[in-house]
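Weekly structure sync - notes
Attendees: PM, LS, DV (DV joined late)
Agenda: review two folding runs queued last week.

Item 1: First target. Sequence and structure tokens pasted below for the record.
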Amino acid sequence: MAASAHPFTNRLSKERSPYLLQHAHNPVDWYPWGEEAFEKAKKENKMIFLSVGYSTCHWCHVMERESFENADIGKLMNEHFVNIKVDREERPDVDRVYMTFVQATSGGGGWPMSVWLTPDLKPVVGATYFPPHDKYGRPGFGTILTMLARQWQEQRDQINQKGTLIIDALTRATQLQGSSEGGLPGQDIVDKCYQRLAESYDDEYGGFGDAPKFPQPVLLSFLLRYHSCHKETADGKKALDMCLHSLRMMARGGVYDHVSQGFHRYSTDRVWHVPHFEKMLYDQGQLVSAYITAYQITRDEFFSDVAKEIIDYVCRDLTDESGGFYSAEDADSLPTHDATEKKEGAFCVWTMAEITEILSDKIEGTDVTLSDVFCKHFYIRENGNVGFEQDPHKELVNQNVLLNQTDIGITAPELGITTEQAEAAIKKGKELLHEARKERPRPHLDNKMLASWNGLMISGLSKTAQVLGDSQYLERAVKAATFVQDNLFDAGKGCLLRSAYPGPGGDIEQIPNPIEGFIDDYAFIIASLLDLYEASYDQRWLEFAVTLQEKQDQLFWDHEASGYFSATGNDSSVLLRLKEDQDGAEPSGNSVSANNLVRLASLLNHEGWKQKAEQLLTAFSGRLNSIPMALPEMVSGLMALHTTPQQIIIKGEPGSADTEALLRVVHSYHLPHKVLILTDGDEESFLHKRLDLLKSLVMKDGKATAYVCEDYQCQLPVTMEEELRDTLQK
């Protein structure tokens, strides 16, 4: 019965990627990336059409509806091409190769990515979205297919030659322009990155540049670290102000989901009002880290509340029972259960009539309703609050995106109620709207679990556990790290795996040929394990991090030019071995690795990893010198390398009151260039075997004792909290 429900079923139905499964019933004879498709192209001497996207990509959905579900276009594709679908989140190595080509030849990029290849996988034509038919002087997808099929028949040798020339040119163009002769970039690069950020900063609404505006956590993280090194300077104070204002405006805007928590992908306008509604795990994890660090510095609970709410969202809506985190929620969903066409934002937006009906209760002792407070506080309008510029497809007509434009201290008196009554009304209103939203058709959930993005979330949880001292966040981080170790680590090979998938019975499953991890997976997981160690003091996580760093060095390090390649190079179908040189929505693997190497070198007194960090940063010196703002996370690694490393060692009994008191003091400060060690003197422990210094440390007067060291040269030990505060503030 299930088979008859779909007139077409292709081999993608056997895949586990949610994106590939979305295309399993297209009339297109899709193949996954692999030898079966490659052999067919060679045997039949056909060009390959490669389509790359991801399951929450709006324009990917559009192109599917318009072209890939069209039987006539499907027939054309099947007759003349071997058609391959790739989930860019599963195979970032494949995506990077062909996106490099598209960007080099068109000046832009994005998804869906549409590329035509020779049978030996060399790109010859590429772009992003195509409309199905000719329109506004632009050729449609059908026209392109027909033209390329004819050219392949008539000019096959020339096209093959063109593909070879393109790959040769891309190979040359993607070589890093390092400057080993000039040596390691200096502190001036750090200051240059800050100045470029300050120039692009939006003083009124926060963030950087104009619309569309992205949260850009890597920029916020850099500013927080820059402030930590320049606290007493005007630039250091401005760096903190820029970051805090941006975080406030983002959390008050519509880019933040005020009803069900979590951040949407980006804002289509300058004021953070109307978002692109998809929610990505990588944003949530990084923004938890940013908000909890802002709280750590300011002690303003606004920031910790946002961090906790993001975690609430992820644990409620993006979490598998096994402990792993899902990838994303889509922007599009059905407006009603009987609707047939999805609309962007349908799950999240409200008419004024809906809010008035749902929030009709009055505040006790007043004639003011919950909706009165909500509509005033969140800029709700009868005709909707979304302008035409933010709704070109008219999907949000008469709809409202919640935007917190005023402080509660202004809302309350204007309605003749107290601040406490207004706050209670808003809290109750959010709860009621959340319950009402649960009755709506949910957007698509991408439930694959990626090692790299799980690492970002584990870091956010671990930092929250450190700063708040709340065991629930530590327990959640440990559960997720255990999931990674159990399901995303091949103990036999000693390597990480890219992805895992929930099975129908609740078990975690793998595809027949599991995808081995990429540099991002290793770097992000290692960083998260270091963060988790400093929250749990369980040395097994530190040992796992060291094991993975050693494996990363073995698999990805470029022994000729330094730096880490993005992929191992073991897959011959990936024609370019690239090094990612930009921190975007996610930091690059090399940038995070620079920070990891500095941390590990400081933690384990390991000169080899410090040298590797220097070599990596030197390899990227051309990029760092010319456009440091493109690599803010790497600039943070450079900042760490130029800062004298600080080790804080607590000698004490784990869990004892005096030990916990000293640890709380350490975590009350933002010290991005410190490493924290807890030792109880166990000579068989991982750290004790690696650090001779630990053998000489004692508990002073039988009390938990703190040693604050620079390059393992330690100051006099202290046992009192205030003494430790004084030492850390110097």
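Item 2: Second target, run right after the first with the same settings.
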Amino acid sequence: MRPSDFCVPEFISLATLVCFGYAQVSVDPVLSIEPNWSTFFTGESVTFMCDMREGVDTNWYYNILKNNYPQHNEKTYKLQTLATGDSGNFHCRGENKWSYFIKQSNKVSLTVTDDDVILVQPASILYEGESVSLHCRRRTQGSTKSVSFYKSASLIGTQLTTNHTASLTVQSQSDGSSYTCKFDEGEESKPLKLKLDSHRPKATLISDKAYIPVGGNMTLTCVVTAPSSGWRYFWYRGKKTHEPVTSGQVIFLSDVKIIVSQGGVYWCRGGRGEPVYYTDYSKPIVTSRSTVALQTSWSEIYLGETITLTCEIKGGEDTEWEYEWVLPSSSGDRLRGHTIRHIPASLTEYYSCKGKMKSDTAQAEWSDYFPVNLHKTKPVPVLHMPTSWPSPGASVTLTCEVRNPSAGWRFYWMEVLFDLSGKTYKLLPGSDNGTEQNSYTVSEREFTSAYLCKAGRGNPVFYTVNSQTMYVWSTDMQSGISLTVSPNRSQHLTEESVSLNCTGNSTKWMVVRFSQSGYRSRCTIWGKMTGNTCSIRSTVPIDGVFCCESETGQLSNAVNITTNRDIILMSPVHPVAEGDPVTLGCKRPSQTKAFINVR
């Protein structure tokens, strides 16, 4: 449970911790006086004010004490017509009405004197290096128009008087020096040594929640916990060296409290005086929650891929971070990115990370668990082409389709090469590194060709399985390898004898058949291969596309042959030119042929 879940504004813990929403911080009460002088003339008056800097005034019982003896039981106390006997050390005490816890303020030393001239420093706590206003005061009106100020008897400045008083601002130093002042008429103050605190105060930054929720905001509060007053606050986002944020970047509820809706690293510090004396910077607060990001443009991951997950802190780009991961087998490294190579089937589905500033203890909250959407089977691309029987010399455009085609895939195009011992694959020109487009145009074909595709992405490249093989059939008989059919027709009756003859520049041939499903088989399975000729006589239909295959794997022109038991259309097996005469005929088993001539 977060610390804020235990915070109840009406109750104060024994560690003097004050609830400010999500965080707790120790804040001391402050006793201040008005006028803020350390020394007064007899007959003057002064007002003491006790600020518990916590809760509301009605939650406290107050006491203002002099030399540890109670003087007044209210928040403010006014002493009128001061006498020398009123000199002493004052502080205030508050007792919480609900928890009975008691808090003590800083001490204020007050001096009341009968002197005619006094040199006064502020009664509040002063810090070494801070600009301090010294006031030279005279009890009675005189004709003096200027006052001289001295440090260790050396003149450091001259100022005109106003209402018996002249002021000079000095840079405070703990060097043991004494200050005096003198009116023109010769009246001089007693020496004054500045009372300084050598420890620079520090601001504390508090948030009302752990991080900015989606679409929401966060309230930040800045306090100087030391018992001092007069501070105004400066806010920073990113590096401390950046310019303070403005009202256009955050919403100022007050000088000490802002609302932020932009993630990042925030700091604050206090300042007072002119020139401004600054406190130390607060510790930073990271308002962004860590998030795990997949460094790919796709969200679906496949078994065997290599991916990199990064830990992101929105608004923390100019800050150096170290990281912690929740991983399957360990707490992981301290790097921003975590690479999972060749994703195994046992991959856990969730990862989480957080970022911690290298220069500080501040950190972003743990991210939500990031799901890795793992598919345990490789994607199967599908190859398409507009036609398998293009005109001789025409180009053919291949298209490779993968699930989520825009998800980082590049496409690899291959020609399938056959020989008498098997098949090999050859990348088509320009396909070595894959193509960004999922289409590829094949031109200048001479023979029947077979193609397939696959897709790949990532580094190292993860490949899909190969697509199905697609054939672009050649009808060109002038390529140097050709197939002839006897009888010369594309349809045949079952139980008829059909001869397929290979001619061309090869010493060894094989007739191959490609079924409608793309299955490739040789003549030796469904026919008889004798030399260059394949003889077929079958009682079952053997339909498909037939080619001659040379010993080097080249395929001849293709012919499409079908068989039927009842009736066939007799037409030439090879294409004819437009306008040439064609003789068509019909035939049934054991019946006379009927012919018709057409053009």
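Discussion on item 2: The first strand starts at residue 17 and ends at 20.
Action: LS to circulate a short write-up before next sync.
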